[in-house]
UniProtKB/TrEMBL annotation:
Cofactor(s) in the UniProt record: FAD
Domain spans labelled FAD dependent oxidoreductase: 9-333
EC number: 1.1.5.3
Protein name per its UniProtKB record: Glycerol-3-phosphate dehydrogenase
Amino acid sequence: MEADIEIVDVVVIGGGINGVGIAADAVGRGLRVLLCEQNDLASATSSNSSKLIHGGLRYLEHYEFRLVKESLAEREVLLKKAPHLITPLTFRLPHQAHLRPAWMIRLGLFLYDNLASRVTLNASKKIKFTEDSPLKSDITRGFEYSDAWVDDSRLVVLNALAAKELGAQICTQTRCVSAERDNGIWKLTLQHQGDKSLRQVHAKTIVNASGPWVSSLFSNVLKQPSPQKIRLVKGSHIVVPKIHQQPHAYILQNEDQRIVFVIPFEDDFSLIGTTDVDFSGDPKDVHIDQQEINYLVNITNHYFKTTISEHDIVHTFSGVRPLMDDESESAQSVTRDYTFIVDAPKDKAALLSVFGGKITTYRKLAEAAVNRLKLFHPHMTKPWTASQVLPGGDFTDLVTLNRIYQQQYPWLTSKHISRLLRTYGTRTQYILNDAASIDALGIDFGHGLSQAEVDYVMANEWACCSADILWRRTKLGLHFSAEQQQHLTDYVISKLIPSVIKNLEPQASTV
């Protein structure tokens, strides 16, 4: 029995952005790492963000200068780490004098430009809106500044892929059902969510990076009280056909002092969000409510010439942010900063728990978390992730890369190539290989999704159902009909059945 027990240095619980970031950092420093995620990678908060890499302009109003400075510095790092997933995005802020005076906005933007070194992005400036502006005609002045856009779920997947390629075990659909200390070792039991099989793992350290479940893991698995309260805050978004043709995003001020983003999304849509609503209940059951829909529709219609209604909504998503409970009066003012709590009684195995955080600072959070593990793993090497690109990011110019692929695969449409490169970067080559025609890519599931791409994400990126593929490996779910989704589901099941049967077959005796 003991011979069947896996022994690792670190078990990371949670396959969101913080968990995969920590796994990648730790394995790159020479630690043996296993990550378990009870569902799919990025299946909760990390695929339901506003999809921005940003300093957090509004955090300045809450005097979160350290967080903003760190976020702005990380923005430059991440633009280089994943140039296919993370791209510059210009924001326009219409001025509403009765909400925030111009001097306050100028001061905030000055700090935003200068709190950290700015290399890639343009400085902020005042602008005038002309007649061709999508905004209502009474809005004539505003400001412009730069941040960045990110495909959030793919950022998670690529960090997991980076960890795997360095030797980490990435176990999706796998829940940690128990963990107990035996002196200097954690004894964990993991259960696969599909076949309910159990596996035993021993680890020197556990990292609790389970996001909205960070506190419940203490009571349900670790059997001890959580050392830190968290405040669950729901953020919801709506997606509508694009309401203007410009490449800019807009940041809208509201009467309640909150802001809402209107962001170009997947070529044909506008992404509008987010809300800030206190949430209680199971994070897996989160969804947008009518009040949030009305809120987002109303503020959009207050600013734009093209108005929208609830009937225009083609997709919604909601995420629960696990924020530190700092006893703020409103959900919008709760800090987005993070903290670690290390539980390491003398001669006992260590537990590090992650509370809070935001996607922009995930890499810095991961580096700091692994630094805290140095005491328990003195042989590990120095931090390394700041200069290491993520899989597929080993190029300097997306425009040039696009041109190369169009020359190499002239039978693919430019839209198809652009989507593949924005999704996979140079790993697109693993999908297209030496194909000489569209037919060589196999079944066409619709909207440019080929059998070759589906096979790739199933074999290399842990995708195991149509939702994984349509919403977290791509965003093609925005276009797929129910019939097309069923066709894809049938194919995925047909691919999975042989491996399921193989796993159920009795193993040959070694006695």
